[in-house]
Amino acid sequence: MSDSQVIKFSLLVTGNPASDQSAATALQFCEAALATGHHISGVFFYLDGVLTASHLIKPASDEVNLPDRWTALATQHNFPLEVCVSASLRRGIVNETEAKQLDLQQYNLKAPFVLSGLGQLAELSASCDRLIQF
Amino acid sequence: MEKKVGIVNRQAPHGRSDAREALDLTLALSAYNESLSVFFIGDGVYQLLKKHQADVILQKDFQPMLKMFDLYDVEQVYVCATSLQQRNISVEQLVIKTELLSTEEIKQRLAEQDQLMSF
Description:
Chain A has 134 residues and is α/β, with parallel strands linked by helices. Chain A is 37% helix and 19% strand.
């Protein structure tokens, strides 16, 4: 595929990984886009989508583990997994820094997901050819 | 050129957090993008209806934040006239000033956007 045909996608994922199909479809979209030579600028998780970033998600062994799949894909293709910090704290997704600041005993953010602000969504929106919401 | 980004609100204000978090998103994006358009369609128009008592159902009253559209220079705020009419809501009952658009006009404005986010 020539460079001119490569599309830069950014994704906005708002679906709950345990209960919304859209969370799984987002991953499939990413895999398909990358498999056909397109580029993923980054994925921004918002609303219940932020739950995807939990290290504590452990479905039964015959079910798909979405956080693991995202981690593998993002690591292999080197794109960021950005998670809205305010939506996260509301839903119990916390990283080490926030845990210290907020005096919480635990944290559960899975690497390479990172907590970031909505400004990152603005950046992903500005830098891509297409923004796709799931 | 800056992308035209449309934020579409289609859900009732409470029951799910979509409306409230879409508003957070809108105000945050307005700091980075001056070409935002905000749409209220279907049950989304209830978000604008005056006199919510969110505290009664243990929710945050986010309606005062709608008034920050002005302050944040979010000027393109559109409401579907048909949706208002179907719900028997008049413009006077809305908390902020908006532009009323027909279904056709809404379709046209949506088509003009480079990106849409829908809640």
